[in-house]
Amino acid sequence: MADYDRPVPSADETAEHLRALAHATRHFHDPGETYWVLGDLGAITRRLQDVLANVASAHMNHRDLAHTDDGNQLEGRQHAHDAAMALRRASVLLEDVGRHVNDAQSHSGRIAWHGAVTPAERAAPEREPRGTAAHRGTRRADRPASGPSV
Questions:
Q1: Residue 79 and residue 66: Cα distance in Å, rounded?
Q2: Count of C-beta atoms within a 10 Å radius of residue 66
Q3: Does the CA dihedral 141-25-20-96 come out positive or negative?
Q4: What global pTM score does this model have?
Q5: 86 to each of 60, 74, 82, 120, how far by Cα in Å?
Q6: pLDDT averaged per 10 residues, the chain (length 150)
Q7: CA 144 from chain center: how many Å?
């Protein structure tokens, strides 16, 4: 469950969800689902940019409290500054990653996957063979209609 006031448990939960996603995406039964996963990955990269910026700001906003383990405040402040700068660089790199993910989703949106089956068809006890299953003009069962249309 989302916890908007406690960053550590939220980060732990997010890491576990991404672990599950990494596992789930090892095999796609319906390659048309890649389009939706790419859309979510684009959103994840944008949100991760926000997280990195927030953690960078926390390092800078609280740098007066930073010390090394042996009590050196000057070095502690420098480490806080360096951490913030590294996080800001990572955020900039994620912006580029997000553009590439969006490009991939755009290309994926133009693919008609011949011979693929939809999740509903897989769940049905008996089904007729289907020649083409594409996500164009369709929607995920758990989402409102969005994405490319025919």
A1: 8
A2: 18
A3: negative
A4: 0.72
A5: 12, 18, 6, 45
A6: 85 95 94 95 96 97 96 97 98 96 96 77 50 43 46
A7: 19
